[in-house]
Batch of 3 targets.
Target 1
Amino acid sequence: MAMLTDLLVISAANRIIGLIRDVFVALDPDTAQAVEVLLYFLVMVLYAILCELLLNGQTLGKRIFKLRVVDASGLRLEPSQVIIRNLLRLVDGLPMFYLLGGITCLLNTRMQRLGDIAASTVVVRIPEVSHPDLDNVLGSKYNSLLEHRHLCARLRQRVTPEVAAIALEALTRRDRLDPVARLKVFAGLAAHFRELVDFPAAATESLGDEQYVRNVVEILYRAG
């Protein structure tokens, strides 16, 4: 469906090319044909390359259907990879209707066509992201850490998304934890956050580990 959407976009661009050709036909038919062939090639190749470079691995069709091209190893997608996978799209389309590319997809576990294999890329689905109910987790308690805005900014810079998600999950599930385990979990998280950023003692001296983690989570998820 994403590919069909992109083909509709390309078809619309080809209609515009036809109008340009008609202008050149009146001047020189040979020039008109050369311009038409060149523009068709540029649209077919450059459309996907430019979209995936500018839209973070997505064409318009991929964006609508929540797909994205990513590096197969999880690294940042490089421009060279985008160019390689789209230049080889012409080979994947052989002999017709993407037959070669489709067969290649069926023969490997990552559903990669030849262009993806050569560029070390893979097309993935973008999962729906659910937003946490922060009101139930954080409550309305006063956050003394928020008084130090520059340290809050530094904390948001240094905490990884994975650790932030763990801290939020710990708060969400805290009432289901064994009391001893609950103390250990929040002691470990609080110690980690204190190592990353050293807030003044006046802002932290009255905070237990769990409240400290709650304040940090509020900074990470709400106060940005």
Note: The longest strand covers residues 67-71.
Target 2
Amino acid sequence: MKHAERSLNRTERLFALILLLQNRPSMTSRQLAEHFGVSRRTIFRDLRALSESGVPLTYAEGGGYEILEGYQLPPLMLSAREAATLLVGTEFMKLQSDASLRKDADEVGLKIRSVLPREVQEYIDRLNERTVLDPYWLHAEAQEDEAHEGRWYQLSEAAARQRSVLMEYYVPSRDEVTKRKIDPLGLVYFTDHWNVIAHDHLRDDIRNFRLDRMRKLHVLTERFEPPEGFDLSTHLQQQGEGQQAEEIQLWFDAQVYASARRGIPATIDHEEEAADGVHVVFRFENLPYVARWLLRFGSQARVESPEKLQEMVKEEASQLIDMYAVEK
């Protein structure tokens, strides 16, 4: 696999070579050449240059090049574009409801700024003045219980360290709080909220749990082993294509489809542009969710099938009409 869409100059390649060998040791000269899209002779010259500059290179017993553990690069020098990308990422994290994530994002942003040259800092300031991620966002900081802070970090660390978790979880459909023991397998962000994908001991199955519905959380010292062969991306794809999933066919006005496409909660099986808009097909099991989601597009979206989804949208719309009806 070639490294980038554009070719790197030698300085960039040497820097990237160090990072690559630190993160993926035991790569051969052939693999390195393929990665960067250069000849093996060029890779040998680069390796020699790194060695002469003091980088502790070695050749692994099993084959491939490595950098001895403990070697650290000098402080990173970021381009204006790279710094902007990182800082926009921290601004996105500031939109999260978890106050600890917002605090961490602020601190990371300050650390990034502290290593930037003044001209790049000034560029970033101008960029921030002209960039708004969500003009209507209101932080829920004042309403958030301090005991709920840090759930994202606790769960991500538990997943990385394979630690089981005890929690109290609110179930809206039954309006009750249940106690669960789960093995967190990964976290995923769905449009406006975080979910943890976990093995639920109560149901003996892999389930999704919303972080904003967790009431109490305690990470145990008990370790777990993930299900054999479990892969988070594959699980999410299969979840959208499960046996209970139904084929859904929708039409969107072309003006809203780009926005709608980002919100489709499954892998798209087929999409086709037509004179009147865009037709799209996917499989998903939670039809009530799709019905409520479609209302945001009004008359610019239409259910073509299944019929029961059409009825759900009609029912949702009817309830809205009744709610706003004025008695005469």
Note: The chain has eleven helices and eleven strands.
Target 3
Amino acid sequence: MNHLIPAFDAYRVFVEPWTINLAQTLLMTSIALIVALSAALIGNYLVLRRMSMLGDAISHSALPGIVIAFLVSGSRDSFALTIGALVAGIVTTVLIEFIHRRSIVKVDAAIGIVFSMLFALGVLLLELAPHTDLDPDCVLFGQLEWLGVHASSDPMKALFASKQFQLLLGVFITTAALNITFFKELLVTSFDPLLAGAQGFRPTFIHYAMMCMLSLVVVSAFEAVGAILVIAMLILPAATAYLLTNRLRTMITLSLTHAVISTIGGIHLAVWLDCPASACMVIMGSFFFCIAWFIHTQPSQQMNDTHEEEAETLTRSVSS
């Protein structure tokens, strides 16, 4: 085991990244934080709606959208690829709902069918399309460490000059603004869509709007952390918070806190172990989930699931 884990050097792990390598560390950490916060915000509603694996489906099925966007545009421009992946994510959501509602196939089976079919289509397109130099590993695993390789010596200039940072910052601001503006609608439709419909909230429209936002969050994170690891950023903070509270506002606060701590801790863990930063962030997040699970399973700490009561209270206040 000693040859697998490098010796711990506090100065190298905690000081050097913020002194010698400040520009690159600031860019990596800022981008990873924005991805984690955006994913945590929308991940809360996925956990509450029992739709956690939908993010996985969208992330994998976006591959054909990326390839088609590359073939149409002829370039690897991030904006074009993001649009292609976003369209593919929306198509994925529509297909899953269509199969589920028009047959006896359950949602989990519909998710498995659609995402495996579209992911396989993306792999075929990569092999068949001429002059396609897209790297599947980049889509799946990201390249967080390479985002700051050409960073300017001025940390703030390098940060705000990054197109990836600008894109992700816009996605985060949009996600946060929609979360705040439509918090009541998201809360009620997450627990009782029929009651929400009776209150005039249009749960179907809200569902598809949230899926579009989920698609945007997932595909915008491809270049940074990849399609696979962004799923952990969607689910781990929300699942950890869900074990510790029975109120949605507190759950959102805890999930955002989890995202921040696991991201920064993952950066330092990656420096220590000399491993990919995105994977280390997930390891840190999993560690905090295990702590929350241990607390939750203690007899004196067990909590009843009363999220429904909060939704009913809010609905009564809306009615009045």
Note: The domain at 15-226 is CATH 1.10.3470.10 (ABC transporter involved in vitamin B12 uptake, BtuC).
